[in-house]
Amino acid sequence: MRNAFARPEGYDFLWPQLAELPYFRALLRAVESRFYQELPIFEPVLDLGSGDGSFAAHTFSRPLDVGLDPWRGPLWESRLRRAHKLLTLADGAHMPFADGSFRTIVSNSVLEHIRELDPVIAECFRVLAPGGYFLLCAPSDHFTDWFIGKKVVGKAYGRFFNRISRHHHCDSPAVWQERLARAGFAVERIWYYFSPRALRTLELGHYFGLPNLISKKITGRWVLFPSPRNPFLRALEASLRPLYNESLPEIGAYIFCVAQKRPS
User: Do the domain assignments include residue 35?
Assistant: First the structure.
């Protein structure tokens, strides 16, 4: 059953994000966007680590209730996207909300960047109403397994990539289940996604995406010519489409988790 924030059946998440983001990030986010369409999302919704609002704007059919982020710059940019009804500058370990304020918390590729996770997850449990859902994703324990650079340089390359990506956590389903249970959550579903081939596309994109970074620094936009008539973008789309449409792998570079605060 699709939730009230879902896009129409058959909506394409790849092209809109490819027209705005570096291609490797667009692929990852488009894959993640599809997951949310049939997940339990009930109002009010908190977007924990909402950043510049790009993901929420592309994923959901209408604004989420609150976007929270500790960085002023991304929140300022997020105001223009209108993907949230309210934006809050705050730390995830100290949220300015009353107990049980939300029925859903979304945290998309955010928690891996937080060194001390337990206080943040405890806060999520506090501000979530009984019966509410915590939807999160992050790099998995297989995140560095299939890197091309790791085969050439060794394990040091994986550590380097995690460092430049600001990853403090790349954990298995068992670690996430134990971590969430410690805070009082019950994990309903947990799955891997992003195959070895998709991961290598992401890896290489960090290097081939340098022109996007230059464009962002100079113009404020990752993609200079986001038109369907741009042959380069269309070629990228054609190469990424099979990865966007691939089935879930048995093990993958990322992990998605649906947890619930069970009613007492």
Answer: yes
Task: Report if residue 9 sits inside a domain.
Answer: no
CA–CA gap between residue 49 and residue 52 (Å, rounded) = 9
One pLDDT digit (tens) per residue for the chain, 264 residues? 789 999 999 999 999 999 999 999 999 999 999 999 999 999 999 999 999 999 999 999 999 999 999 999 999 999 999 999 999 999 999 999 999 999 999 999 999 999 999 999 999 999 999 999 999 999 999 999 999 999 899 999 999 999 999 999 999 999 999 999 999 999 999 999 999 999 999 999 989 888 888 888 889 888 988 998 999 999 999 999 999 999 999 999 999 999 999 987
Domain CATH for 44: 3.40.50.150
pTM of the model: 0.95
Buried b (16+ CB within 10 A) or exposed e, 187-219: beebbbbbbeebbbbbbebbeebeebeebbeee
Task: Tell me the residue range of the domain where 78 lies.
Answer: 14-260
> Looking at the 3D structure of the chain, how many domains does it have?
1
Residue 47 lies in a domain: yes
